[in-house]
Design brief:
Length: about 80
């Protein structure tokens, strides 16, 4: 479910020292030059990554998200 995905994201952020601000429909994640926001719309969660650390490439980030998608409950990525 959408809330399970958000709970997993929040848990990982907190355990890695990132800031996680949210309510039941939207939120923001930031820390170590990483910044993203998300919005919950029904059963779907849209995540927008706006900034990543200079040492991490966008391609690497996409591969990691794809590799861990099932762990986070991600069914579809666009």
């Amino acid at each position: 479910s959408a809330m399970e995905l958000v709970d997993n994201l929040r848990s990982n952020c907190v355990s890695n020292g990132a800031s996680f601000k949210w309510d039941h429909t939207q939120g923001e994640v930031s820390g170590m030059d990483f910044r993203a926001s998300y919005r919950i719309e029904g059963p779907e969660v849209s995540v927008t990554v706006s900034s990543i650390p200079f040492f991490l490439s966008w391609g690497h980030l996409e591969r990691e998200i794809t590799k861990r998608a099932a762990d986070y409950g991600i069914a579809r990525m666009d």
